[in-house]
Amino acid sequence: MFFEQENISSAEYAGTREGADMMKVTETIAAISTAMSDSGIGIVRISGPDAFEIADRIYKGKKTLSSQPSHTVHYGWIKDGENTIDEVLVMLMRGPHSYTGEDTVEIDCHGGIFVVRKILETVLKNGARAAEPGEFTKRAFLNGRMDLSQAEAVIDVIHSKNEYALKNSVSQLKGSVQRKISAMREEILYHTAYIESALDDPEHISLDGYGDTLVEKVEELLKELKKLIDTADNGRMMQEGIRTVIVGKPNAGKSSLLNALVGEERAIVTEIEGTTRDILEEHIQLNGVSLNIMDTAGIRKTEDVVEKIGVDRAKNQAEDADLIIFVVDSSRNLDENDFEIMEMIQDKNVIVLLNKSDLETKVTKEMIQEHLDKPMIEISAKEEEGIYELEQTVKEMFFRGEIAFNDEVYITNVRQKEALEQAFTSLKQVKRSIEDGMPEDFYTIDLMDAYEALGSITGETIGEDLVNEIFSKFCMGK
Ligand code: GDP
Model pTM? Predict the structure, then answer.
């Protein structure tokens, strides 16, 4: 996710240390680090080998900044030649003790788009290059200040759409993913090293019965990986929102419901059946839970070709949904369309809304219950009644302790999930090879594949550490 945005090549993506060495940075970069709006203060950040020199050129105060110790703050003025731009506080951090690991200067100036931009322009005029999005974090990674999962977590913190997602990103940032992955890698490396050493030195190291030990270990690792992979789906829910699809026959009040939830007239509400032919998507917050909510074409049997496409698409969306909100028009009798929908959503997470409770009702909860046993709420989308109950039900369904947020490690991005799945497949193969009585060097190939896949999550790769491990621990008697 992060790397797609930054257009980083695959060599950097793998994050090899050699790659990092080759990419030692010489340019000094600068950017506005606060939001571009009128606010109390604004921060311009400069990072790179010339950060202090550039600051010296534009700062007027009692002292020259470059002669000051690290982690000190200085009051003064920023000048563009003769023009004074703003009264500022300047913070100095010498590498490697800074976020990027490089010499860093932060200029705290008055907020306000014009002032902050003017200061950045002055910084750029005096020798820095404008940073690309995420470039400070990229440097932090290249300078070994954080691993890949932490770098991605930084981006996630910035993009967090709700408090749970934020909590999760913060925990990743602290390195919880990294610790877990590193522990697994260490384990894999140990066993690989052991087998390799035994093959090299059979006189001293025996592999008798080692298969059983290894199978046990691999099973444990598989279990742990499975757990992490499973969290990826919950993680996705927290990060991107629960995929929620509103279904119902035409005119049940689906668009009216979406409007009531979003609080704006987004969906077109009309009395002509079949107006919502495509799919509308909205991101909304209900009590801190993010929903990606989709209004779909009313589901009914139709001969109209365009409408039929909408109906089919609605069915597909419902198929993939995490949560389905089924809107029933309680002022009209249930018909074959309602029955078809109920049939379709039997095995899904569903909340049934008996809409139009403000009108005379023809449909009762009992009537629905005969066909579909799911939580039901009476609402009026038009009068906005029952919306609070809907919010509560959504919240309860997903956070009734089923998802624990505190100490769990959640995998929230697709790249990490894929790497975990790769590691899982490789370890499965190790298990199979042992059970099939294959020679030991077969295991090590798949073990190393798993090791490498896990390493791509944290940005480490094999190479030297394997060699060191083998020689430091197992190469005996020579
Ligand atoms: P959709 O086809 O399911 O998206 O239905 P709409 O949201 O377009 O609503 C169809 C018609 O039902 C419109 O005339 C709405 O004003 C009306 N409607 C929707 N919800 C309610 C409600 O709770 N009470 C009443 N009386 N009318 C409603």
Answer: 0.44
